[in-house]
Amino acid sequence: MDEWNPDALPTGEPENERSALSVRANESSALLASDAERERVANLLGEAAGEGRLTLAEFSDRAGRAYASRTRGELEPLLADLPAGIGSVAPTTVPAVRLPVVGNAVAVQQVTPIGAIKRSGRWRLDRDTSLKVTVGPVKLDLRGAEIAAQDVNLHVETVLGAVKVWIPTGVRVLVDGTTSVGTRTIEEDTPRGPGPVLRLHIDTAIGSVKVYRV
User: Fold this and answer.
1) Helices (H) and strands (E) in the chain, counts
2) Contacts of 78 (CB under 8 A, 6+ apart)
3) How far apart are CA 146 and CA 101, in angstroms?
4) Please, which residues bridge with residue 185 across strands?
5) Alpha-carbon torsion angle 188, 175, 184, 122, nearest 10
6) pLDDT in tens, 171-195
7) 140 by DSSP, 3-state: which?
8) CA-CA distances (angstroms) from residue 6 to 11, 47, 106, 110?
């Protein structure tokens, strides 16, 4: 009697048909990506960042790889761990479904009379956040930040204290505010394509302001 081999059981799909499907999938991955496909992937990554699925650093890295991609096969892994329904590289006539925003998206305020405010690693940045310090520095590393929306406002105010902010390259940032005594150094960057927008409103009475691109 022949030994039972589960791999030999019928699968309902002929071997030659499975091979044909595999070939077609490989051929699709090998196709050169269009500018529209790169832009679409970058837009989907921006939406994922706005939903808190990607940190700003993760968005920056993936968006950069998307624009540098030559084929669809290079674009597909950038969406592989995102929810089903937004992971197709090729354009489609079916409207994309916008997923609900995850987490709190209301105004958040923190006031520290004397002391420092420091944020780094993976942390949550709400849609509208206000940080105020009377005496002390503010240091914010936004590389690991998860944002609650694609358009975020961050207000930082100190009376006596410096403000330092680290932002991933490729993330769109608008900086305004005033400094009575001290210097303001803003490292500019010109992001390519769509993505989250960070609006930094930084005011200091006495203290320098430095915004770094990393």
Assistant:
1) 4, 13
2) 41, 45, 62, 65, 66, 69
3) 12
4) 210
5) -80
6) 889 999 999 999 999 998 777 777 8
7) strand
8) 10, 44, 56, 62
Residues 152, 125 contacting (CB under 8 angstroms): yes
Between CA 145 and CA 1 the distance in angstroms is 63
pLDDT tens digit sequence for 150-171? 899 999 999 999 999 999 988 8
Q: DSSP letter at 178?
A: -
CA distance 88 to 121: 30
Quote the CA–CA distance of 103 and 124 in Å, as a whole number: 9
What's the pTM? Answer: 0.69
Say if strands 151-160 and 172-176 run parallel, antiparallel, or are unpaired.
unpaired
**Exposed e or buried b per residue across 27-43, where buried means at least 16 C-beta atoms within 10 angstroms of its C-beta:** eeeeeebeeebbbbbbb
Extract the tokens encoding 54.
């990607």
What do you get for the CA distance between the two ends of the chain, in Å?
A: 68
d(CA 124, CA 129): 10
Helix (H) or strand (E) holding 23: helix 15-30
Q: How far apart are CA 3 and CA 120, in angstroms?
A: 60
Q: How far apart are CA 154 and CA 115, in angstroms?
A: 19
Going through the chain in order, the beta strands assigned E by DSSP cover: 107-114, 117-119, 123-125, 128-135, 138-141, 145-147, 151-160, 163-167, 172-176, 179-181, 184-186, 197-206, 209-213
